[in-house]
Amino acid sequence: MARDPYVIEMDRMLAFADAVTAIAITLLALEIHVPEGLPDAEVGQAFGHLLPKVLAYLVGFVLVGAIWLGHHKLFRLMATLDRAMVRLEFALLAVIAFLPFTARLMSEHGGAPVAMAVYTGAIGLEAALLAVMALRLRAPGPLRRPEVTRQQVAREVFDNASIATIALVALLIALAAPLVAVWWWVLIWPVRGLPRYWPWLRARL
């Protein structure tokens, strides 16, 4: 008997993904520790020491939230999950669960090339996984909702593939100049807006 290629309901997978995302965000917050027995006069100084961790939490929160939104946006195009898509989903969730570590690494060693490379690599990997998942929806079949067009799917592929490409270049830059790699991410907004202003690309997306 052939194995059923459709192994889990969409709602259950989304619920599991939401739980992993919530735990990842909670772990980000748990990295911020207020020293016990701190006198009132030293609160300001203590907060100054905690500021890198607070900033890492905020950046991590925005990043995890963006992944969560992109994930739900992709799932709205899908009708069901097959085994290959489930494997990609678990790989994506593994990256999300890893993000608190990358945020802590950045808060404590932000100037180190390896810290920036690991952080950037995690972002690029999650974008690449979302792009591959979207790419699997381009072929007609049961994975894609009937009302979803190829142009909608192509836009998802383009958005995530562009982020993955920017991340790859940022990773290479980070190994030599970590602070320059941070500014490289500014390219996300103009690159993702290309289909709006470039008729040739818009016609294909």
From TrEMBL:
InterPro entries on file: TMEM175-like
Keyword list, A-Z: Ion channel, Ion transport, Membrane, Potassium, Potassium channel, Potassium transport, Transmembrane, Transmembrane helix, Transport
Q: Where in the cell is it found?
A: Membrane
Please list every transmembrane segment annotated in the UniProt record, as residue ranges: 12-34, 54-72, 84-103, 115-137, 157-186
Q: Which GO terms describe its molecular function?
A: potassium channel activity; proton channel activity
Q: Which reaction does it catalyse?
A: K(+)(in) = K(+)(out)
Subcellular location, principal: membrane
How is the protein disposed in the membrane?
Multi-pass membrane protein
Q: Which Pfam families does its entry note?
A: TMEM175 (PF06736)
A GO cellular component term found in this entry reads: membrane
Domain of life (superkingdom): Bacteria
PANTHER family xrefs: ENDOSOMAL/LYSOSOMAL POTASSIUM CHANNEL TMEM175, ENDOSOMAL_LYSOSOMAL PROTON CHANNEL TMEM175
Family in the record: Belongs to the TMEM175 family.
Official protein name in the record: DUF1211 domain-containing protein
Organism per entry: Streptomyces luteoverticillatus
